[in-house]
């Protein structure tokens, strides 16, 4: 027999309880044999997919991390049976286990939550208040209103808030504003615009509040305090290294390309323990790398929970050479390094264009990717397209729509896209390599003029290299070397 907050419950092996702060559990057992009690602490994640990009967020349980126990114990076995009955037996993909775990926890929470009971400890009220502050930090807030939302008197709310958060409600609101301001400072916005966006009408008052928290003025924060930067998208590590900064963590390329990134400055300077797997959340590695700032791209769905580790700035992606580099250089105080790279690239690009024109005129080039699921022909609206069709002024394959970013095709459609030269990349999976063999043995492939004249080149990891400045410099050299024969 167990007594939970005064309610007697019959307990058997395997029973599952949700315990929240302040809950009293007493046990009385008839046997003299030792009993075993386990406390399970867990962290759950949810995975979302949109436009072929995956993002990670924290699941929103009915009672976030604080679940009331019902008047009847629910065993783990019963909860799993309840969940399995609701699941289709035919659902399966690589993320099924993660989703099932999340759904199971939701199911158990639903069974354990008591309908109509109050919230004696104010847990739900405080959670509602924190959620409200997170969404409305830029608005004017009165402590009286927040206390009423939580269901407390003003004095009790202030004491409870400080006990839970180790700061007053006012300090917490300021912290939320400053955290968002640090993200916005890594953009082209001026300090006055940032101040207004995070809820300060007076720029000077914002500057004083920021300096009180961070120790420096907003205009100096990135240059003076942002020394440890984590790169959360391909190419951002290359941008930082080109500017003379080594990221404390960066994505590993080995999950995306057939062989490792060959440039020593892009692999050796970043410790292996802080190379991030692009298929995982990497929360633990990011926390251990202790970044001052994390940089990601607007091409990814954003994970707001990353801001719990460090402010996450979102960079506007550009396929035009030098544009992102110059933007980052201006913020980080590295304008000279950016200007040097842009000048070298222009000179190299001019020489290569002249050499290609001398040998081939203005040939057409196709860039084809073989994945486990598709054959894809890339157009001009991506990084390799910008390199081939803008920087080097080559032509798109005949029959390719001018405005298409990329086009997924079937094997029988390959012959529709004629090009003088073909660059082909294959994803680093057995399925992709098998699909490549189907392509190479097909009549559609062998009928192509570029194939008959042996003008097909291995693209390797050029697709990902072209996202960064140093990689882009390597890529135009590589294209030139292949077209020279």
Automatic annotation (TrEMBL):
GO biological process, one term: iron coordination entity transport
GO cellular component terms, A-Z: outer membrane-bounded periplasmic space
Gene3D superfamilies in UniProt: Homeodomain-like (1.10.10.60), Nitrogenase molybdenum iron protein domain (3.40.50.1980)
Positions of the HTH araC/xylS-type domain: 127-224
Pfam families in the cross-refs: HTH_18, Peripla_BP_2
PROSITE patterns: FE_B12_PBP, HTH_ARAC_FAMILY_2
Alphabetic keyword roster: Signal, Transcription, Transcription regulation, Transport
Span of domain Fe/B12 periplasmic-binding: 228-485
Cell location: Cell envelope
Keyword Transcription regulation applies: yes
Cited InterPro entries: ABC_transptr_periplasmic_BD (IPR002491), Bact_iron-sidero_bind (IPR051313), Homeodomain-like_sf (IPR009057), HTH_AraC (IPR018060)
Main subcellular location: other
Single GO molecular function: DNA-binding transcription factor activity
Protein family according to the UniProt entry: Belongs to the bacterial solute-binding protein 8 family.
Protein name: ABC-type Fe3+-hydroxamate transport system substrate-binding protein
Source species: Paenibacillus endophyticus
